[in-house]
Write a structure and sequence with these properties.
The protein has 1 helix and no strands. With 81 residues, it is mainly α. It has a domain of 30 residues.
Length: 81
C-alpha cells in the first residue's frame, strides 16, 4: 500500500512537471530572446564606454605627469639661480 501510494504521487508529480515545462518555453521564448538581445547591446555599449573612459584617463594621466615634470624642472631651475 505504501509503495503504491508513493509511486502514484511520483507519477502525478512527473506528469505535472512535464506539462508545465513545455508551455513556459513557448510563451517566454520571444521575450527571453529580446531580453538577451537587449543585454548584449547594453554590454557592447558598456564596453565601448569603458574603452573611451580608459583613453580619457590615460590622457589625463599623461597631462598630469607632464605638469608634474614641468613643475619639477621649474623648481630645479629656480634653485640653481
Amino acid at each position: 500500500m505504501r509503495t503504491a501510494s508513493i509511486a502514484f504521487v511520483l507519477f502525478m508529480g512527473i506528469g505535472l512537471m512535464s506539462c508545465n515545462s513545455g508551455n513556459n518555453d513557448r510563451r517566454e521564448g520571444p521575450a527571453a530572446r529580446q531580453a538577451g538581445r537587449d543585454a548584449y547591446r547594453a554590454s557592447r555599449e558598456a564596453k565601448r564606454d569603458a574603452k573611451e573612459a580608459e583613453r580619457e584617463l590615460r590622457n589625463a594621466g599623461k597631462e598630469f605627469r607632464e605638469g608634474w615634470n614641468d613643475a619639477h624642472h621649474d623648481d630645479a631651475d629656480r634653485r640653481q639661480k
